[in-house]
Hints:
Low-confidence stretches: none
Number of strands: 4
Number of helices: 10
Mean pLDDT: 95
Strand order of the largest sheet: 2-1-3-4
Amino acid sequence: MAIENEVKLIGIWSSGFVTRVMIALNLKGVEYEFLPDDLSNKSELLLNSNPVYKKVPVLIHGDKSVCESLVIVQYIDQVWASSGPSILPADPYDRAIVRFWAAYVDDKLTSQIRVLILKEDEKSKAEAAEQLFTALLLLEEAFVKCSKGKSFFGGDTINLLDIALGSCINWLNAMEIITGINFLDKTKTPRLAEWAERFCSAEAAKEVLPEAEKLVEYIKFLRAANRAAAVSSSK
């Protein structure tokens, strides 16, 4: 493969945002090199490739760097348009709807997962859990409309919204292990729960989704580090 076409992905194993990019690359059959980074000691490559936010994921395509997971996924869909299924719908309105809900996932879902991970007081956790359930109920309705009775938000194939929400599944499963709360409850969001099982079994996703059990240990590590930082700052 010529140097100008080489594809590299800077990331960390646990990041759902990085997982999104991996799934998109897998869907398109794109070979890439994964470059794990240490976010506590960020590499020069990461800092130079994403000088604005200085965070993962970063896709390096030849001499170009592309940042932000949903932007990267759409870039992949356009660059490798002739390979694999389309990640974005062809119809402009359908495409707008998918982008709206993908942004909603980041605004209402991933933000509250982060609260559940880092906040240990009962009030914060209860509020975050309530907001997560509200978001998932709306996404259940969105699934019914977008899927049109088929397997995924994209119908027969995985699309941008499948990828955006799918990257959260094992984080929700990890939080269920820790909190005892079943966020993908078949009695409350049956279609979404069934979709989650299908998504996790999809060829493009199953090899790159981080295991819930490993995420549980990672969450414990993050909480311990957060407590230590709080103690240190109070001295």
